[in-house]
Amino acid sequence: MSDISYIDRSGEAQFGDFVALLKPRVMSLVVFTAFVGLVVAPMPVHPFVAFTAILFIALGGGASGALNMWYDADIDRLMRRTANRPIPAGRVSEGEALGFGLALAGISCVMLALASNIFAGAFLAFTIFFYVMVYTVWLKRRTPQNIVIGGAAGAFPPMIGWAVATGGISLESVAMFMIIFLWTPPHFWSLALFMKDDYSNAGVPMLTVTHGRRATRTQILIYALILAPVAVGAAFTSIGGPVYLAASLVLNALFIRGAWRLWRRDEDVALAEKYSAEKRYFYFSLLYLFGHFSALLVEKGLGIFGMGGW
Amino acid sequence: MPITQTHELHQRRFSRNLGLGAVLLAFVVLVFGLTVVKVNRGGMMEAYDHQPRASVLPVAPEAKQ
Questions:
Q1: What is the ipTM of this complex?
Q2: Which domain holds residue A78?
């Protein structure tokens, strides 16, 4: 049997390695935003159907993570941050990851379509296609705009959640999409500012490498400024309300202030301080997104008592 | 041919097999639960089958009572 070849391999794949292929930390964001998208939609969804739908949206996100790791194994080996992923570490073979990812992608789309509706299933399939083919294969290694386009893939989950409940797309789901879409560039570029060696070693055209760190700081500020009116504007759709508006105003003011400070910062000072402000901004950006989507949940929750919305 | 000797390999694979078993079991439970929910809510269980038939016609409002 061909299994002989596996016996001598030092690190054999454990169950946890296959879980790691699904990028669980990215998955947690997918679960949260898809959940919010599903809950804030006007149509009620049976709790068990909602649970199943979110599970398979998460699994679809995990499948695209596995396919991304399959394709990017060569550059993951070169970056400190990713060198310990299952494929570069030699615990899972590339073929296993490819098969695993494809199988999960198929299962998750079919099951989501069966559990909710065909549109949601097709939307999930499109998202996986977009993340794997458009972002990973096509754009990631070609253009410094990779993060901007890739952000779209990460922004689809709340739209899928909304589609599970309503079977379609509407202004509110596009607003949730736009918040994540415009939030992704400042989020990742602030990461790139303090992870600077990694991306250049791997030859990924990160904005910090191609256009310099000064330009990256400018772009972070520009995106923070474009994001603010969109995020605040979502307060005036049917899913928004006073609580969301207040939260959004505060979070956006802080987000722009942070971007402004990063923009004013001198590179030498940043280096001397070990990029403390850049790191803080990165972690604050997570809080920013969490805060917005939590505020949408609060509006929905208050709505049950007749207090949410306008 | 039964496996008569256990190898250290089998122990290492045990956790993986156990995990896969748990996942498959969870999947069965999930599909069953979904079936129960869908049947209980009495949605449209039959799709159009290229042949008109009474059961796929919309229910008349007076018949819903």
A1: 0.80
A2: 13-167
